[in-house]
């Protein structure tokens, strides 16, 4: 199976900073995505300059909204990050144990407990047992899919057995960082539109921002372990 890269690497995008000490590699990535998602970033020369600036600002906002909307698209991943697989399994086990106690009570088919209540509990027990079986089947399927995703990105899943949902935690933490960066980029765009600050836009022919050499050297040793092709 082809392995892309460890999701932990996404968190390192904010560790690599520019010479200003504030702009990170993630800022640059977000800005490039915004530009690529802006269909009107290239306008005709005959268009008036004011219209160009207005259209460009609108397209930038649309691109930023698309990137910032990633958190909404992955809201279920964020919820999963707060779950504990062991706790969920224990809940199912407790339900199964409770049903077993109900079964033991119903085994005593005494005349005084016969009637509507007895029949209702018997029907409840049957439906509940079937539901428990479905829940356990869904649990096994979900854990198998999580294991597959973990194996796809991180390779050896044995290291993740203690925390099978850790991959969701990584995505959750990255989304928090991404939201923060999107807000900063949005503020930069607003300042650019009113002309109170220098434009954050990077020219298409411009190279990657000059990165702090110390940070780059610091990450070199860990990046070899993080990326696997």
From TrEMBL:
This is FH2 domain-containing protein. Belongs to the formin-like family. Class-I subfamily. The lineage of its organism: Eukaryota, Viridiplantae, Streptophyta, Embryophyta, Tracheophyta. It comes from Rubus argutus (Southern blackberry). PROSITE patterns: FH2. It comes from the Eukaryota. GO terms for biological process: actin nucleation. GO terms for molecular function: actin filament binding. Residues 1-204 form the FH2 domain. Coiled coil: none annotated. It holds the Pfam family FH2.
